[in-house]
Design brief:
This protein is of the alpha+beta class. Helices cover 23% and strands 31% of the residues. The protein folds into two domains: 122 residues, no CATH class; 36 residues, no CATH class. The protein is globular and about 65 Å long. The relative contact order is 0.17.
Amino acid sequence: MNKDFEKFLYIELKSGYSDDGPAWIGRVKYSKTGQTVYFNNKGFQKSAGISGNYIDVETSEEYWISGVKRNGEDRHSAGSGKVMIDRKIIDDYLTITGQKSIDDRRLESVDIPDVFPVYRINKVVNRGNNWRVSIYDRTVDLGIVQIEFIIIISDWMNCIFMRI
């Protein structure tokens, strides 16, 4: 299956937020395998996170990514805040939702650059620096930030134990 095409999706940052993180409706591009979604100069891969279903492969932040809802209520019912929608896709969005105009109470029209960093994200994904760790019978993918944190903590722990 070749998903090397563009469409638009709902994308919400979950890390550090509840259901009211920054959110966008914008054009995305899938990798040829369909494993990676590219949006706004970022790359995301499917993940069984705590509150998200995708993870930013460079920062390990969790995101919720889904198709656009036909009723126009993309944000979780417990969430708040406007969703930013790319001006370039408003006509297509209105066609899908059957609306005549965007709801200014829910959506804010913005320019989102079509930057799909395929080469950069492929380097990150394929360099082998994402380690898999099993914690409490659950496998977790670790990104560079988490690996660096573990190294710092282990160095600190070694210093403490060497003093004893």
